[in-house]
Fold this protein.
Amino acid sequence: MKNITDSFVFLGHWPYAGSFGFNTDILATNLINLSVVIGVLIFFGKGVLNDLLDNRKQRILSTIRNSEELRRGALEQLEKARARLRKVELEANEYRMNGYSEIEREKENLIKAARDSLERLENYKNETLLFEQQRAIHQVRQRVFQQALQGAIGTLNSCLNTELHFSTIRANIGILGAIEEIT
């Protein structure tokens, strides 16, 4: 203890021994007061300060651990999202390629169907024209036949007399009789 008091003796000017008075040396008194306060704080506050620092250290470490776990989880989610993105991009490319080929197939099918329809329509048109042509030819033939028949009937009626008519009938009957004898 003597060493402690000796250190204070040399720090300032002490008044005469045995007297009581005020120390007017501000630096010496402030240093003494500060060293006493710091000593008391260190002695009594060391445990509290250690506890506070330990608590703070534990909170920082737990925050770091939580951050690391969150970081790992975020990285895993990022990798999963990237994998899903790659998968979706592959599927999109596949759908795009299939879509293009499907469009080309549909285009070719539509062109073929249109070509087939045109051929059928052309065939139907040709058949209709042929049918109408044959019908017209048949009608013309019928008219010509009717006119020829009417002309022949008219000619026969004007040229045939009763005697000629009877001789034609007898000749035809004779022909039919000869055919009957042969069979």
Summary: Residues 1-5, 7-15 have pLDDT under 50 and may be disordered. Residues 28-131 form one domain. The radius of gyration is 68 Å. Residues 150 and 156 are 10 Å apart (CA to CA).
